[in-house]
Amino acid sequence: AMEKSYVSMFLLLVAISCALAKDVGKKETKETTAKPKLPQTLSRGWGDQLIWTQTYEEALFRAKHSNKPLMIIHHLDECPHSQALKKVFAEHKDIQKLAEKFILLNLVYETTDKHLSPDGQYVPRILFIDPSLTVRADITGRYSNRLYAYEPSDISLLYSNMQKALKLLKTEL
After folding, report:
1. Which residues, if any, are the signal sequence (predicted)?
2. Which of 14, 52, 57, 97 is most buried, with most CB under 10 Å away?
3. What pTM did the predictor assign?
4. What is the mean pLDDT of the chain?
């Protein structure tokens, strides 16, 4: 009799744990299908409908082979200046539309490539690189001490610099 109750207790525990495991599985799939993960992570809030590259190397490769300019945004999640610029950038309809013509990369870490910090490692900074893989030193923000810095109030300058990057592309290649 004792053995029977152990066996039935064991079977009951197995049944309960199976039922619980099934519920856990259901919850996970519901959450993962509800929102797409990939675009969110790569855009980091700079424009979820835009196509962002994952690495600097991939971005250079795509710029070179698609003949599109590359726009690199260096920022940090906990930097208030980066956050403010990101908000204005993401909400600016014309910038979001124009950004579709670029290979896009946003970085929350510094690269070892010295070309990406020609005048220092500050954030936010935005650089343009043409398909010949040249950093455009002629497309800068309004600060002489931080050439590639932009603030939310500089959004129209950033927009015209994006147009400039596309225009240079047509006239030089």
Report:
1. 1-21
2. 52
3. 0.75
4. 85
